[in-house]
Amino acid sequence: MYNQLRSWQTEYRQEFDKRMAVREDVEVSELGYRLTDSFYAKQYRIALRNSGIIDPLKIEDYIALDGYKALADLLENQIPQADVVAEISESLLRGRGGAGFPTGRKWAEALKHDAEHKFIICNADEGDPGAYMDRNILETDPHCVLEGMAIAGYAVGADFGYIYVRAEYPVAVKRLKIAIAQAEERGLLGKNIMGSDFSFHIELRLGAGAFVCGEGTAMMESIEGRRGLPRVKKYRTAHKGLFGYPTIINNVETLANVHMIMLKGAKWFRSIGTEKSPGTKVFALVGKVANAGLVEVPMGTPLREVVYDIGGGCKDGKELKAVQTGGPSGGCIPTSLIDTTLDFESLAAIGSIMGSGGMVIMDNDDCMVDIARFFMEFTVDESCGKCTPCRIGNKRILEMLERIIAGMGEPRDLRYLKLICETVRDTSLCGLGQSAPNPVLSTMKYFANEYEAHVKEKICPAHVCKGLAQYIILDSCIGCGKCKRNCPVSCITGEIKEKHVIDHDACIKCGACEAACPVHAIEKR
Amino acid sequence: MSDVYKDPRTPLPQEGSEAEHYKELVAYIKTKPRRESSLIDVMHRTQDLFGYVPRTAQLLIGEMLDIPTSKVYGVLTFYSYFTEKPKGVYGISICLGTACYVKGAQKILETFEEQLQIKGNDTTEDGLFTIVPTRCLGDCSNAPIVIVNEDVWPQVTPEQVPDIIEHYRKEAAHV
């Protein structure tokens, strides 16, 4: 059967090369082929190596580029399970879903325990708003994930795999079903893979719109047919997880790296990225950036390079204000820290996290207090409600932020806010609650002046918060004085034919001046 | 707890548009293992068939899978994808993820609410439109996104909103 795979590979590669030869957007590369557009010049794509190059509906394309060869090599040469685990451990591959837990250590734990069944779960519940790396991998290279799961299954001794995928990804669901069927048809998945003793079946389990189900224990609750409430982890998941059996939960991107690591070796993987965070990471560069899209770069790349060299800087020539990484669990990085390198340690050191890879670019038209409120609203909505700190604490944080934005904030609110945030962070049951206060804490740290402006001066410097809008007299003022005469609290000063000025402290925001101005030189911002 | 399915005793409508759906649902459930872990899959099928999860279906599922109806209801209300209320012909999903949010999604939502005279998650009186504010749909580089049933509208502006609505009114009139 291994010879069958080899002959398929040779045959399909020839046809594949012919198809690539007539394309102008690809060229041969170290890992097969690469895209030549300038957007990809500084990228090094391992997890996304096939994205945009192969046809995801053709298993022939995947096989042409050595697809399933990593799995075949293991089975043909009957590599001991411990050796496979050792290779992954040595590569220092860390979870790409956000936590960055060493994958090898997880697999080693599961291998250690004997059980009637073991499970591999692929976490495809990508819920972070602003992140779509996993969706792309599932839609453009589904076989890569299947092979990664099968290798994981072989390594730990699992017989069954589940891909827990969001219901909001119907294309990914469809393509995964097709890919699984194609692989089973050719004996690359299912019973006695390639004629060996190793059997591994994969099934899909759909999510249903609950962000919390991306948390490992909540995901297992969901697969078991219940509400996605996280469990107290009495046992490690790798010891007793799904249905009580040893379970490995790996993110899509993590699994997408496995094939290459097994083929090219741990040393190769370690040569990319940094010492503690080897390899690459896929980021979803979105928001107010000129070139939005998925970016895969070696760990340790400075943020500046990603935002400016690859992303082309802010859209419409605006100035960068902050980069939000890690979704609702992450923090905002101010422009002053743009030279921070993208790896687990450096990001944690400045109060953010790598997260799943979401990277939202914000300019001066974004209010950081409003952004903190946006994330808090999301978290409160998605909180499962099981533990008190998250269920009640986050709601109080949201209420405080809403009051501040409405102009009813007081200085002591800022102290309370910090205190509650730290309490929720330190006492919540699961990662959702523990990381929910991050956006608030990081914006309070780096944009303290904005919070103070909202609370003390009752203004929104970015002119976003409607409750704090001010009336401004523009340069087009002709100095006629009509506004001054109509103001009920006489807060406008100015000489005839000179630009008039509103005293914001005395202004009662009635709008009489705006209505009176004959040249529309007064604006509410 | 037996693994074998018996014919359900829950009274099911024998006439009307949903009668066929119930027959299909019963047949589908019988292909799944008779366990709690089949619940979410079955509920997805129910939502696909009916467009929502009717009370009767909840009772049926509970009986057939041997799960207390309270648990079925608990799962239904926990997951935002499932709904107990029928939805309109066109579900207007407005993405409120971070990337869409900074690109003005809130204004898009408000414009739809204003134009259709309903609030988010409500359905218009003629049963045509439901506004569904959603979490990140995963198409962030084309923010702000609006998805109507299966059509993706990228980089939507508030000015386009009336045209989008008109597009579907016309489509509905021709069906």
Structure description:
The complex is a heterodimer of chains A (525) and B (175). Chain A contains 21 helices and 15 strands. By secondary structure, chain A is α/β, with parallel strands linked by helices. Chain A has 4 domains: 77-270, NADH-ubiquinone oxidoreductase 51kDa subunit (Rossmann fold), CATH 3.40.50.11540; 280-363, Ubiquitin-like (UB roll), CATH 3.10.20.600; 368-457, Up-down Bundle (de novo design (two linked rop proteins)), CATH 1.20.1440.230; 470-524, 2-Layer Sandwich (Alpha-Beta Plaits). In chain A, the strands form 5 sheets. In chain A, strands 8-7-11-9-10 form a 5-stranded mixed β-sheet. With 175 residues, chain B is an alpha+beta fold. Chain B has a 4-stranded mixed β-sheet with strand order 2-1-3-4, with helices on one face. Chains A and B meet through strand 7, strand 11 and helix 14 of A and helix 2, helix 4 and helix 5 of B.
CATH class of the largest domain in chain A: Alpha Beta
**Count of alpha and pi helical runs of chain A:** 21
Count the domains of chain A: 4
Describe the sheet with the most strands of chain A: 5 strands, mixed
Largest sheet of chain B: 4 strands, mixed
Backbone shape of chain A: elongated
CATH homologous superfamily assignment of the largest domain in chain B? Glutaredoxin
Q: Mind sketching the topology for me?
A:
The complex is a heterodimer of chains A (525) and B (175).
Chain A: H1 2-21, E1 26-29, E2 32-35, H2 59-64, H3 69-76, H4 81-91, H5 103-112, E3 119-124, H6 133-140, H7 142-156, E4 160-165, H8 170-185, E5 201-206, H9 216-223, E6 247-251, H10 252-264, H11 266-270, E7 280-287, E8 293-298, H12 303-310, E9 320-325, E10 331-334, H13 344-349, E11 358-363, H14 368-382, H15 388-405, H16 411-427, H17 431-435, H18 438-446, H19 448-457, E12 471-473, H20 482-486, E13 492-493, E14 501-502, H21 512-516, E15 522-524
Parallel strand pairs in A: 3-4, 3-6, 4-5, 7-11
Antiparallel strand pairs in A: 1-2, 7-8, 9-10, 9-11, 12-15, 13-14
Chain B: H1 17-29, H2 39-50, H3 55-65, H4 69-78, E1 90-95, H5 98-102, H6 105-116, E2 129-134, E3 146-148, E4 151-153, H7 161-174
Parallel strand pairs in B: 1-2
Antiparallel strand pairs in B: 1-3, 3-4
